[in-house]
Design a protein that fits this description.
By secondary structure, the protein is α/β, with parallel strands linked by helices. The chain folds into 3 domains: 3-205, P-loop containing nucleotide triphosphate hydrolases (Rossmann fold), CATH 3.40.50; 210-248; 253-371, Up-down Bundle (Zinc Finger, Delta Prime, domain 3). It contains 17 helices and 5 strands. The longest helix has 21 residues, at 287-307. The protein is globular and about 65 Å long.
Length: 374
Amino acid sequence: MYFRDIIGQTDIKRHLIESVQKGFVPHARMFYGAEGVGKLPLAIAYARYLNCTNPTSTDGCGKCPSCSKFDKLAHPDLHFAFPMVQKRAEKLLVCDHYLPQWRSFLAEKTYFNLGDWLQYINAKNAQGMIYAQESEEIIRKLSLKVYEAKYKIMIVWLPEKMNLECANKLLKLIEEPPARTIFLLISEDLDKVIPTIRSRCQPIYVKPIEYDDMIAAITHHYNLSLSDAQSVAHIANGSYSRAIQLIEADEESQLLLTLFEKMMSAVSSRQIKRIKAIADELSRTGREVQKSFLIYSLRMFREYFVSNFKVPELVYLNGYEQRLLQQYGGAINESNIEVLADEFSLAHKQIEQNGNPKIIFLDLCLKLTMLIKK
C-alpha cells in the first residue's frame, strides 16, 4: 500500500510525510477513527515511506528493495499483530500462524472490518482476539537487531482486542522500545484501549473520508452512475468499507436488515410467541453476527430518531431501510432513544463477555416492546 492508494486524507498524508522529512519519527503512534476510513492503509504506507531508500516528496519510490518487499508485506523488519481465533489443535496462539492468510487478505482488500477478516479465516462463531502469548512473540521479535531497514516496525491492528495480560506485558516495550523500533497501533474504539497504552502513543485522528473523495473512489472502482455513487457516499458517511458493503450488498448486510425487520415486526405486534421466536433466532447466530446486529440496530434507531427533525441530508438510509422508516420510524423519539441506546449497548457488552445470548435477546426484545409503546 502506498499513500497514493489511500482515499482522501490529504492532510494526514502530508503530515506523515513531512514529519519523516524533518526527522521527527515518534516511537509509537496511535491511528484512531471510525471503521473504513483508511487507518491501516495509512500505517502501512507510512511504514513503507520510513524504510524506502529513495522516497519521493509524496510517496515511497516503489523500486528499491525495501518497497519491493513491502509490496508483498514480507519485509523482515515489518511485523504485524492482529485479532485471530483459537483452533482446538493449536497450542501457541500467535499471529504468525495466520500470517500467510493475512498477507493474502490485504492483497485483496484495502478497506475492511473485523468481520471481513474473521469471515476470511473461517472463524465461524469465534470472537477475534490478540492472545496473551502474542506479547512474548512481539518482545522476541523486537529484541532482535534491525535486519536491513532503517526501522523495525510493529503494526498492531485493533489493540482494543488485545488480551489484558498481553497489553500489560507490552507497556514497558511501547514506552521504551529498542533503538530504531516503531509501534504503529490502529484502533476503531480508542476508549477500549487500556489507558496506559494510549498514553504512550502519539494520537493521530483519521477523520471520515470526504464526500467528494468518496464519490471519486466509488465511480473509479465501480460501474455506478453519478447519482447512485452520491447516494452510496451519503449513506456510507465517510466509511469506504461501508460503501463497499452497500454496493456489493453482501449476505451479512442482508441478514442484519432481515433480522432487524423481523425484530421490529415482532415487538410491534406485541405477540409473545413472535417475540420469543425472533429472540431465539438471534441467539442462534454467531457472536460476531450478534454484535454486528446490535450495532446495526443502534444505527437504525439513530436514523429513525434524526428523521423526526425533517432534515433528509442528516439521514443515512438506503432504499429498503427508508421504507422500513415509514413503518417504524415514528416509534423512536426523544422519550425512548436514550434508553434504547443504553439497552442495546449493554447487550453488546454482555455478548462480548460471553453472556447467554438466549437470555440477553429475549430480555432485550421484551424491553424494546415496552419502550416503543411510549
